User: Fold this.
Amino acid sequence: MVWDYTPHFPHAARGKSDKEIYWEKSPPEWVESLKSVVSAFTYKKPLGGVQLDPATLPKRAITLNAFAKWCSASGIRRFRDVRAFDLARYLQKLRSKGVVDRTLASHVAILRRVYDMRRFIVDSFTDEAVSALRSEEVGPLWEPDAGDDRRTELIPLRDAAQLFSAALGHLNNADNLLNLRDYLDADWALPSTCMSRRAWGDEVKKVKVREAGFKDVYDYESALIDIRTAAYIVLAQSTGCRVHELGDIRSGCVYSEVVNGVTYWWLKSTTRKVGDGPQRWLAPEIVKKAVAILERFSQPLQRRVVAELAAAEIEYCAALPADEGSQLALRILELKRNSTRLFLSASSRGVVSTDTKSHNKQLQAFAQRRGIRLASNLSTHRFRRTYAVIVVHLNKGHRIDLVTLQHHYKHASMLMTEWYAKLPETDKELYELIEEETSYFDLALVSHWMENATPLAGGLGSRIKAYPGRHHQPMFFKSHKDFVESIREGLNIRSTGHSWCLGEAKDCGGRGLFEAPRCDGCAKGVIDDHFTDVWRSLREQQIELIELDDIGPGGQDKVRRSLAAADAVLAKLISKGEGENV
Assistant:
């Protein structure tokens, strides 16, 4: 009554329940039909189709079981008894419960596959019933490119900065925590220790943790677990890796590479998303520190895994009943996978790979303990898109409150994006996500430029402000979005730190990057209100320079011209009332 798919799950971060199918949770009259379907899904493929990855079947079984429970409640006992009307009612029920289109599409795909696999199973839909699953009957489901809504919720960038700073702060203190842990572990292991566990805890452990500044043992143990969580935050936020990819990092997973005199750092692991295999991710140097601390944190857990593995292998060599031997073989397989992993947790089943649910629980607890109030729960899947957004913002040079991240993301620049494009073994999906976020950023930026209230300086800025007046938007475009996209299309928007540059090499050749006044008169330059504070600072610098008496006539002349340019830009960016106070 339990089908164990553990051999098909080399993935880290998957819990035991994710790897097994529990048939006792299915309606009794449906068990035979469901087993037949899942067995066929495991070993067969439909004509002209592809065989499913067995690692996906426990989740697919949950979807099938939900359908079976609904049918059982409606008095339907087998797939062959389902009518087209019943399928239509079931899909309507899912829609009424607010099931998102992408999930609804997966439900329909699994039910269609039951019919497609009818040659291999004892019970399937009839031809009449499956007509309700045809595209013309179901209607439009999920369109990947429809709408602007992003499927994964972003961690607000200010919250991301707080999380990253808190994680770094905790890792900076990790050695002191681990020293205390190692001292307590060594003390308990001494042969002379004859106290009970409880007495030792009261007389030794509680005293030591209070001396170290902790309120109680729970406070101390929470701080220990937070080391693992802090390492996850730093690694996820600085590499964009998925939870199972970080879950599979092992001792020695960080290395450096020098290219043209520049040192690049890499994190290596294994991906299971699109083709199993080794993978590496470009990362800032901070990952070296995070992994080093995580390695030390995991050492006692790894030793426990190795000891349990040795004992299990000895037991396996003894004569065992077949069912016990197969269960032990699965346990040995899991222990071997975990023996060098870094994200490990102690559980009632021994030491296991830290699963996604545990990560999510500890991420939320970490934020709460540090007073970081998030509008929605923190979870592992939110870090990947947040990473892409951070890379885009740093590439664009947009002024965001991420000073700590800016310091540590030494290679989060256009050069980093180019690496993703050039290296065939790099995470292509992550590169595409960065490209997608770049498009979102540019579209939002151009839309901001087109607003009447947005002040613009720069040669191109003046032309953009005049554009809506010369082109009748309602006549040519269905919506404001279409209008903005028509302008944004084909633009390569880059930041100089004081303006947005849309020029090519044949224009200023990059000199405007170092000579800000050039950008105000440039036909390919836009200066918007994002850069108001920058131009205020440039103006203040010119005032300081003009008072110097050792820069010569040429220097004085250049300063006067730069000051005039700053005044001209600020006059366009600042309202009249505000400008009087500059």
